[in-house]
Amino acid sequence: MSAATLLRVLARAGGSSARLGRRIACAPSFLVLAVIILVALIGPEFVRDPEGLNAGPSLSPPSGDFWFGTDKFGFDIFARVIHAARLDLTVGFSAAAIAVIIGMPLGALAAMRGGKFDSLLLRVSESLQAFPTLLLAMGIVAALDTRVVALGMRIVFLILIIALVNIPVYLRLTRSAVLPIVNSDFVLASRCAGKRDLSILRRRVIPNVLQVVFAQFSVNVAWAIQILAALSFIGLGVPLPTAEWGAMVRDGASYTIYGQWWVAVFPGLAILVTVLTLNLMADRVRYGK
Amino acid sequence: MSEPVLEARDLLKDYVTRDAKLQRRTARAVDGVSFQIGEQETFGVVGESGCGKSTIGRVLLKLYEATGGEILLFGENVAPLSERRFRGHRRKLQMVFQDPQAAFDPMSSIRSSLREYAELRGLRRRAEQDALIERTVEEVGLPPELIDRKPSEVSGGQLQRLNVARCLLVEPKVLFLDEPTASLDVSIRGQIVNLLLDRQESDHLSYLLVSHDLRVVYAMAHRVAVMYLGQFVEVGTRDQVYERARHPYTRGLLDAADLDEPRRDSSSVRLAGEISDEVMALPGCRLMPRCPFAEESCESPQELLQVEEGHLVRCWKAVEQPGDMGLPVTLTKKGEAREEAGKMIVE
After folding, report:
1. Residue ranges per domain, chain A?
2. Contacts of A115 (CB under 8 A, 6+ apart)
3. Are B62 and B97 members of one domain?
4. Could you tell me if residue B240 is inside a domain?
5. Residue B31: which CATH number?
6. Interchain contact A142–B (C-beta under 8 A)
7. Nearest CA to A74 among A59, A85, A86?
8. Does B113 touch chain A if contact means CB atoms closer than 8 Å?
9. Mean pLDDT for chain B?
């Protein structure tokens, strides 16, 4: 299935589930996420340069001037947290989106076709899932040695790797959601109308599993951000001086025991709030609370 | 009977599963079933849940692939056809589902589900499709506005009418009715039965009716087959099966249903126990473990034997020694039972 088809399906299902849309839109978690996204979009225009040297005194605590304090280079931590939102959300959303776009149709096809195709996909995804997600991502990043490439390319690599380790999640989720639908009466009815597999997949199957997949999607954005943060924390993610929440926590961690808690705590809080919001949203979508 | 519209010959269907050790296991759901349905005729199949009666229809519609046997649609064997080649035949053969709620896509409007059938009819333009859909929906007695709702916003009885309307969109010749009233309120069942009977007459439809509701089958079917564990155990006209039942299973089924008055006399048959998979492996009568009349000779394979014109029974004893089974029957020389003998069962 092409990306264009998938977008059409998403749009169609989105339009046909206006009630679901309203339910999500009224959720507090949705409002919080909207604020986070807004901050990521326009926030960086209103704060100091996150990489400007000598912006302030080194390691000064939160004050009226520097709301979140400064780090050892004197960078404004508030500015860095805001700037990092753009990077972290971009990586999180694009990695999760790529994983959905590849994993969902594969999982649906596996469930519909069955047989060898199904077994093969399942075995491959099991092999990938046998490794802890973070370990696998670490392994691939280390093996590719992405440190030599330019920052932009490196972020693209990170997105692709995080997407890759998440594809099996969508494949299996979609497969298990599609299995009962493939044998449902309304799909048999479409068969009786002489509809082909791909048409049934597009018009009947995918719209019916979208809710489950979307719930997983927002959890997955959170995972992707966590993976990126974790990779940066151990030095395999985004290098200094680029602002990234995980990398900032890493840099600040060692100061915490000396009482300079603000360096690690504020980016850590940013991760916490974002991940929590996305998880609450996923609950909302899945259980309709 | 006129030229058969639909005929099944020795239909076989195995389901392949894997057990805990990943060994292939086959379960035979339909085991050598043959029948013919003529124009404007209703052929009813009754039996317990899980006896394979729904599978017959699904195999005929090629929703499941037949393991063996022939499916003749107007004389042409369609069993070996690929889905692509069979697509041209789909218009002739359609299905009314048991659960109307499950038969429509819960995420889409009913119109969108109906459109698929208008497309099968060959209508390309939206306006043509909609005109046909609205006309057909009115014909089954529903306001056309209904179709812009989701299935969850329409009542079960209305949905079942829409289910029938959906089939009618393609002007089919044969409808497979899979328990068409089973999930409906008792008060609505009659309406659906009447709708189906009316349409049969006006559109010259043939029905394959599968149900465990003996009343519905009685009201609709011309001929009836009783199915037990994948095989027909008794086939005949409606009156032959309902009033002159011979097979112990048929009699047990009729007794359990208490069609008229509960009978507790010597002629009533009580079936004990449950269906088990093991009996499928035995060569003889599958009802043996549950049958009150079972004896050694029942362990040999049982064929469908003719007891009178068009009335077949898969039980040697019911044919040869009906007296021993509470059937007050006098035998003719060739083992053919006299009609009046069997009549006493239902008194």
Report:
1. 38-287
2. none
3. yes
4. no
5. 3.40.50.300
6. no
7. A59
8. yes
9. 84
Let me know whether B35 and B175 are in one domain. Answer: yes
Torsion of CA B167, B171, B173, B176, to 10 degrees: 0
Packing angle of the helix pair A28-42, A77-113 (nearest 10 deg) = 120
Q: B276 with B183, same domain?
A: no
Does B63 lie at the interface with A, CB-CB under 8 angstroms?
yes
In terms of Cβ atoms closer than 10 Å to its own Cβ (0-12, 13-18, 19+), residue B20 is exposed
Task: Report the gap between the CA of B117 and the closest CA in chain A (Å).
Answer: 5
Q: Is A288 left (phi over 0), alpha (psi -120 to 50) or beta?
A: left
| Among A254-268, B111-125, B294-308, the least confident range | A254-268
Determine contact: A186 vs chain B, CB below 8 A.
yes
Answer whether residue B238 is part of any domain: no
pLDDT digits (tens, 9 = 90+) for A192-207: 998 888 888 888 888 8
Give the integer Cα–Cα distance in Å for A108 and B151. 24
| Degrees, nearest 5: CA angle B26-B30-B36 | 155
Quick one: B136 and B216 in the same domain? yes
Domain range enclosing B341: 245-346
Q: Which residues of A touch B113 (CB under 8 A)?
A: 186, 189
The verdict on B145 and B254 lying in the same domain is no
Amino acid found at A109: L
Residue B201 lies in a domain: yes
Minimal CA–CA distance to A44: which of A90, A6, A5, A87?
Answer: A87
Could you tell me if B69 and B163 lie in one domain? yes
Cα–Cα separations (whole angstroms), residue B283 to A90, B280, B288, B289, B317: 67, 8, 11, 13, 16
Same domain, B127 and B168: yes
Chain B residue with CA closest to A191: the answer is B63
Secondary structure of residue A131 in the 3-state scheme: coil
Nearest chain B alpha carbon to A183: B63
Q: What is the pTM of this model?
A: 0.75
- Say what the pLDDT of residue B340 is: 37
Q: At what angle do helices A262-287 and A245-256 cross, to 10 degrees?
A: 130
Q: What is the CATH number of domain A38-287?
A: 1.10.3720.10
Residue range B121-150: mean pLDDT, rounded: 90
B217 and B249 part of one domain? no
Number of domains observed in the structure of chain B:
2
Nearest Cα neighbor of B196 from B185, B208, B213 is B208
Is B322 within the bounds of a domain? Answer: yes
Under 8 Å CB-to-CB from B266, ≥6 apart: which residues? B326
